[in-house]
Design a protein that fits this description.
Blueprint: E1 2-7, H1 13-19, E2 31-35, H2 49-61, E3 65-69, H3 82-91, H4 96-99, E4 103-104, E5 111-115, E6 123-127, E7 134-140, E8 142-144, E9 148-150, H5 152-160, H6 163-170, H7 179-184, H8 196-211, E10 215-222, E11 244-248, H9 251-263, H10 274-278, H11 285-293, E12 301-305
Helix pairs in contact: 5-8, 6-8, 8-11
Length: 313
């Protein structure tokens, strides 16, 4: 049973870091990749620099060298190229002064191939920053129309994928007459035959590739829990009030705990499973079951409260 640490106080992230013993993965003078979503312009739900600065400060105090990172989008928009994406990060305050560390976004050609030999994919195409030996996923938990929710697994898998990698996750060309075209065409319009379950499993395979043979940890913010991804240029009102912050060394356990906390909190969305209410056709448990099969972690967890105790309505 994995340990997931929780605080309902949004200014206790540094104490949560200590309680979860995340310092054990930080080594002096080693780079630490802080995987984050910098937010789409027009969206206000994404994590803000002030929320994550205590984490970069903590890593610096331990002798580590943190930097924020993400990879460019497949769809057209202001985060499709490195130059534009970095400008978005700066515009949203992700500078060393405001966030405590610089931001690095790799170019498409600065990619690495990781052999994984999984059920769907034999290799993963990741941004170069995924080669960093120590990775901490800083995740804004929210709903998602393909995966039910966007948690640590999606942050790692879809987030670290290059544009080619993102295409591989979204598309299923096995039985497609355009298969040869799809291999070279970085366009979602090329073909779309993948079920939501298939996409979830491919995302998990990419998440597996991103932390394979690495030191990794996970911090998830249950704040402004919007019904859709931060990739939209807008966001709807939260489905539940702010809950708190989670930290763990297990990406499966932290996603399961986050989903449970949301589902056990009263909000504007009804039902025992709020994500199923939002997206009836999506079984979000597929990603967790598959990640467990790949040995990435356990859905069974112990929730350990860091003062103050949680308030779940």
């Amino acid at each position: 049973m994995s340990k997931v640490f929780f605080t309902s106080s949004l200014d206790k992230v540094s104490a949560l870091f200590d309680a979860a013993s995340l310092s054990q993965i930080i080594a002096p003078n080693e780079l630490v990749a802080l995987k984050i979503h910098f937010g789409e312009p027009g969206n206000t739900a994404f994590l803000k620099p002030a929320q994550v600065k205590p984490i970069s400060d903590k890593i610096f105090s331990l002798g580590g060298k943190p930097f924020f990172t993400d990879c460019n989008t497949l769809y057209h928009g202001p985060r499709k190229t490195t130059k534009e994406h970095l400008q978005v990060a700066i515009d949203h305050g992700f500078t060393k002064d405001s966030a405590g560390a610089d931001s690095i976004i790799p170019e498409e050609e600065d990619s690495i191939e990781v052999l994984i030999n999984c059920k769907h994919l034999k290799k993963a195409y990741l941004g170069k920053t995924a080669a960093t030996k120590t990775i901490i996923a800083l995740t804004h938990f929210k709903g998602h129309e393909v995966t039910g929710f966007g948690g640590a697994l999606k942050n790692l898998g879809m987030g670290f994928g290059t544009r080619l990698g993102k295409l591989r996750m979204h598309q299923d060309c096995k039985n497609c007459a355009q298969a040869k075209t799809c291999k070279k065409n970085l366009s979602l319009e090329a073909c779309w035959n993948g079920s939501t379950g298939l996409v979830q499993e491919k995302i998990v395979e990419y998440a597996y590739a991103s932390i394979k043979d690495k030191k990794s940890a996970f911090i998830t913010f249950l704040t402004k829990i919007s019904p859709q991804c931060d990739c939209y240029d807008h966001n709807d009102e939260p489905i539940v009030p702010d809950i708190g912050i989670l930290a763990s060394l297990d990406p499966v356990a932290i996603d399961q705990a986050a989903a449970d906390l949301v589902n056990n909190t009263s909000g504007r969305i009804n039902g025992a499973d709020k994500f199923k209410t939002l997206y009836p056709e999506v079984d979000w448990s597929i990603q967790l079951k598959y990640a467990e099969e790949l040995g990435m972690g356990s859905r069974k967890y112990e929730l350990i409260c860091v003062n103050p105790s949680p308030v779940i309505k």
